[in-house]
Amino acid sequence: MTRSLPFVMMAVLFLAGCGGDKGQAESGAPAAGAPAAPGSDLTPFELANGIGPVKEEIPAAPIGKALAEKGEKIFEEKCSACHKLEERYVGPALGGVTQRRSLAYVMNMILNPDGMYTRHPEAKKLLAEYLTQMPNQGLSREDARAVVEHLRKEGSEGK
Question: Cα-atom radius of gyration of the chain, to the nearest Å?
């Protein structure tokens, strides 16, 4: 009898774990407020636009020259030690990043790198690839928007 006890316990635990997913409605669709992706606690907006203070999509209006120039100065001061536009460095190349990611995503990565690396699947992949976490540079939302405008300008030149 004592030899079969571990098998009985495993069977009980297995059957208890088969009770179904409480995050799903009976139709099989995610329940209201449930995460968008299996195994994720992120909403569809957070998956597309990142996790952080930017909670709305940023429209891609025509590139603002003055804002891009301000962003270039900030980029040189705060970002260029780890990022280049067209080559891998300490961090990923940022040329064309605003064509691969939403503007809100890039801003949230700038403004909330800790939260992004902790919870966002794409940021986790970057951390696994580069083995270096981007530090929070303490930029304001306005400064982050200027950096994004600089990256938009650089990503659109010659294309």
Answer: 22
User: In this structure, which amino acid lies at residue 12?
Assistant: V
More confident residue, 59 or 21: 59
Angle between the 141-156 and 103-111 helix axes, to the nearest 10 degrees? Answer: 130
Contact between residue 82 and residue 93 where contact means Cβ atoms under 8 Å apart: no
Residue whose structure tokens are 């705060």: 78
Alpha carbon distance 98, 94 (integer Å): 8
Look at 82 and 16; give whichever has higher pLDDT: 82
Confidence of residue 155 (pLDDT cuts 50, 70, 90): confident
> Do the Cβ atoms of 36 and 43 come closer than 8 Å?
yes
Query: How far is residue 91's CA from residue 81's CA, in Å, rounded to a whole number?
Result: 9
Question: What value does the mean pLDDT take over residues 47-56?
Answer: 97
Contacts of 62 (CB under 8 A, 6+ apart): none
Fold of 41-156: Cytochrome Bc1 Complex; Chain D, domain 2 (1.10.760)
